[in-house]
Automatic annotation (TrEMBL):
Belongs to the TonB-dependent receptor family. This is TonB-dependent receptor. Residues 21-131 form the TonB-dependent receptor plug domain. Keywords: Cell outer membrane, Membrane, Receptor, TonB box, Transmembrane, Transmembrane beta strand, Transport. Residues 317-852 form the TonB-dependent receptor-like beta-barrel domain. It is found in: Cell outer membrane.
Length: 889
């Protein structure tokens, strides 16, 4: 092999560069590193990387996640990282408006490049926190069949995969056709099958006396007197009983989604000459998912959605109402059965292009990409509000008034075909359940059209002085259009269904852009300048929605000797709000949050709660299961985000220690006018503690003082700052002719994560915090280490993933121990895995155990699972065994 360094194009630059000489902090993950973990999806693997935050969407998102897995970087959100396939944009999921990692077959991945720095100046919007470039296998002239299976130590969540590829060269290797296919299935984990999650707790762990288990939405119902506030339940035989009975909803819920994915791809190219190579690639995937939750909880309607009352009121003269007053009803409709969500997603990314040499070192790449996603979201056993009222013989006194009371009128059931008159104090008969039940189907469709022209020359000129290097120039243009439509079921749009109401989302945008990059090697191979290179990039973008914007980036890369290199970057970024953020209709969700007025003792909070209509906050109790109805949605008045990023660090590759490479990098992100929503807990806390009384306008309460809803639509918040230090270490040691030891480590130290939730307001510091009672986490330390020993055809790899302990934060302040007991911290966690491999002729055998210590995720009172499934997703299944066999031909 010649001594000349291999030159490649790595994400972060449009110009070729020698390995390990880029100024941009880029992490490269190989296919072998992914497969040795036993990961079924790319998302499963990415959760190991310290730079990937907990705000990503994962397979543990069983309440509205829809089987979609999306990755973020630095905890800045899935909407601020750009995912590319072979350097070009790809179709987004029309439900989550992010790139679904489940749509990429892991066996087709050749490598992944992660730019841990802003990239808007080269790749356009969305590349605020960085870029993930997934490189697929192409240009194959061999074949392979791989089969994999796995199961947890609990005997559930089976995993299976079969994949194959075959490539053919033709016309003396001028052309190539490669085909790839994969089928993957992954079973779900039921919540009742994990001891740590069987009995769900919600409450303030700084004061354990406030802790509650289960939900007040029970099959027996919870009935509250509108005048006295007294609490009752039914015996399900038609009688009213004093007191309430909580319900353990974990029995019917899933912790992880069931997944199936089928993928097909075709790749072809033909080299006519060095000026013209025609290429094309088509990637298609069909994903389905299924998850289950406890039966539908029923309380009423959202005030602004439809003509139905926000509360179901049982009048004082209703048969069986012995309370002597009107009652508000909360009830779990187990007669309908558990809620089941099934999704189907079809994603297509098709690319055609031509590339070659223009003249004297100038090269071009012209491509057109079309991407589309069709998404179907089916929900079963959601229930119909008007049909349930008919079944109970209830009629609003003022139809169309959200605060309307109700009267008993059994004739409304007599007039409705199929209606069976029933009592809220008794279980529904099968016939009554069939009449009042409802299933919904929603559909989404997104499209991407991207015309891309890239021109570059790595050696335009040589610097006109001694030891001067090359000047490289890259330029290009891009015209991109994105459209999205999401149409909920008519029952969801009208508020008829008793699940979260939604409206239609429809919109799009187009942008025309041009970019220019110049890279100059000022000095090379001279005293204290083995390499001194500067790089500058700029991009001009013209949007039909917001007008024009410019972004830029500059970097310096200095190697005084071949053993050490210093590098730094500084640049700007831009992100226009997505279609969902701009045009998304309002929808209802249930955020885990605690009402500050419940049991309030602070004079300020007591006074503000009394102003809100609560006569005795000290004795007031929050209804529900610690969840607050929260309305979210798009905002057409949103403005773009602006960001600034800088990094600086050093890379050490000492000649006296062959095989060693290590780097240290400091990074800093600043995102202003960040698009987001205020946490429900933040709104409630800051409204009633007097910090921001203006937030009280976002809180609506019903006549009995209970929170009916909180409004938290998207808006331009203040500034988000985050910074930290990365340390990467790789060492390959040749022990003997047969033995090689490889050590790899990736460490992140989070120095700062702070947010200005209100423009111009104070900064809240979330470093080493986990948002309580449900949100992202920002551990100060994260680490992923692997040690691999190769002995001839045999290999063994040990992997350890460390997540530092975090302190609970209610989005306003860190929680404190009140009386010296209770839990307000989550401990550090280490996941340990092991993988063994054996190669004989054309056969490869690999197997392993993930979470070999069978550690459970740590306790966290999230109100749904007893842990934070986003941060600790890999611990959720428990110990997992897997085996893979592949045959090359």
């Amino acid at each position: 092999m010649s001594g000349k360094a291999e030159e490649v194009v790595v994400v972060g630059s449009a110009l070729s560069t020698a390995n390990n000489t880029s100024a941009n902090p880029v992490q490269i993950v190989t296919a072998k590193q992914i497969q040795q973990t036993g990961a079924t999806t790319l998302s499963d693997f990415f959760q190991r990387l310290p730079s990937v935050g907990s705000s990503s969407q994962q397979n543990t998102d069983t309440n509205g996640g829809g089987g979609v897995s999306c990755t973020d970087l630095r905890n800045l959100g899935t909407n601020r990282v750009l995912v590319l396939i072979d350097g070009k944009r790809a179709a987004l999921n029309s439900s989550s408006n992010c790139f679904d990692m489940n749509s990429i077959p892991v066996q087709q991945v050749a490598s992944v490049e992660i730019l841990k720095d802003g990239g808007s100046e080269l790749y356009g919007a969305d590349a605020v926190s960085g870029v993930i470039n997934i490189k697929l296998r192409h240009d194959l002239d061999t074949g392979n069949i791989t089969v994999r299976g796995g199961i947890t130590g609990h005997g559930d969540a089976p995993q299976g995969m079969i994949s194959g590829f075959k490539g053919w060269n033709f016309d003396h290797s001028k052309g190539n056709i490669s085909l790839f296919g994969q089928y993957m299935t992954q079973g779900g984990v039921r919540q009742r099958n994990r001891s740590w999650s069987r009995n769900v707790q919600i409450g303030d762990d700084a004061d354990p006396s406030n802790n509650r288990f289960g939900s007040s939405y029970s099959p027996y119902g919870s009935f509250y007197g509108l005048d006295s506030g007294a609490a009752y339940r039914s015996d399900n035989q038609g009688n009213l009983v004093a007191g309430t009975k909580r319900f353990n909803f974990a029995h019917d819920s899933f912790l992880t989604n069931q997944l199936q994915d089928s993928s097909l791809s075709g790749d072809a190219h033909y080299d006519f000459n060095d000026h013209f190579t025609l290429y094309s690639n088509v990637l298609y995937s069909h994903n389905t998912s299924m998850t289950q939750m406890a039966a539908e909880p029923v309380a009423g309607a959202v005030p602004q959605n439809g003509p139905y009352p926000t509360a179901i009121t049982i009048p004082a003269d209703y048969p069986g109402n012995t309370a002597g007053e009107d009652l508000q009803m909360l009830r779990r409709m187990t007669e309908w059965g558990p809620r089941e969500t099934q999704t189907a997603s079809d994603t297509l990314t098709a690319k055609v292009g031509a590339q070659g040499r223009i003249y004297a070192g100038w090269k071009y790449d012209l491509s057109y990409t079309y991407g589309a996603n069709m998404y179907k979201y089916q929900q079963s056993n959601m229930g119909s509000y008007p049909a349930l009222l008919n079944t109970y013989g209830l009629q609003p006194t003022a139809f169309g008034d959200p605060n309307s009371g109700m009267i008993y009128n059994p004739s409304v059931c007599d007039a409705a075909a199929g209606c069976v008159l029933s009592s809220p104090f008794a279980s529904l008969s099968p016939a009554a359940a069939r009449y009042s039940n409802l299933n919904t189907t929603s559909n989404g469709h997104s499209q991407l059209r991207d015309l891309n022209l890239r021109i570059h020359n790595d050696h335009v000129a040589t610097m006109p002085w001694a030891h001067g290097g090359d000047l490289g120039i890259a330029l290009g243009m891009e015209h991109r259009g994105e459209q999205l439509t999401y149409v909920p079921d008519p029952a969801l749009q009208s508020g008829v269904a008793l699940t979260n109401p939604q409206g239609v989302t429809s919109g799009g945008f187009n942008v025309t852009e041009g970019y220019l990059e110049g890279k100059a090697t000022l000095l090379r191979d001279t005293f204290l300048a083995k390499d001194l290179t500067i790089d500058a990039q700029g991009r001009y973008s013209s949007y039909n929605t917001f007008g024009s914007v410019e972004n830029w980036k500059a970097s310096i890369n200095w190697a005084p000797t071949r053993d050490i290199r210093f590098r730094g970057t500084i640049g700007t970024s831009f992100r226009q709000p997505s279609v969902y953020e701009l045009f998304g209709a309002q929808s209802l969700g249930y955020a885990t949050a605690l009402d500050p007025c419940a049991g309030a003792s602070s004079p300020t909070i007591v006074a503000n709660c009394m102003k809100a209509g609560i006569a005795s906050p000290g004795s007031f109790q929050q209804q529900g299961s610690g969840q607050v109805a929260t309305v979210s949605g798009g905002n057409a008045k949103l403005q773009p985000e602006a960001g600034r990023t800088y990094t600086f660090g050093t890379v050490l590759t000492p000649r006296w220690i062959p095989g060693l490479s290590t780097s240290v990098e400091f990074w800093h992100y600043n995102v202003s006018s960040s698009v987001g929503t205020l946490a429900t807990n933040y709104i409630l806390n800051n409204c009633y503690n007097g910090t921001n009384p203006g937030l009280c306008s976002l809180v609506n309460r019903s006549a009995n003082g209970q929170i009916s809803q909180v409004s938290a639509v998207l808006q331009n918040l203040g500034t988000t700052n985050t910074s930290g230090i990365d340390w990467d270490f790789d060492y390959r040691i040749r022990l003997t002719r047969m033995d090689t030891l490889t050590i790899s480590n990736s460490l992140q130290n989070l120095v700062n994560y702070s947010q200005q939730l209100v423009p111009g307001g104070q900064y809240y510091h979330y470093t080493n915090a986990i948002y309580y009672p449900g949100g992202t986490s920002n551990p100060r330390w994260r680490d992923y280490a692997t040690v691999s020993w190769q002995h001839g055809p045999f290999s063994i790899t040990y992997m350890a993933n460390y997540t530092g302990g975090v302190h609970w934060n209610d989005s306003s302040s860190f929680m404190q121990l009140s009386d010296g007991y209770g839990r307000v911290k989550t401990p550090a966690m280490v996941q340990q895995d092991i993988a063994l491999g054996y190669h004989v002729e054309s056969w490869n055998f690999t197997g392993g155990v993930n979470n070999i210590a069978n550690k459970n995720p740590p306790f966290f009172a999230d109100g749904g699972t007893n842990t934070d499934t986003s941060t600790y997703s890999s611990f959720v299944p428990g110990r997992n065994f897997w085996l893979q066999i592949s045959k090359d031909f």
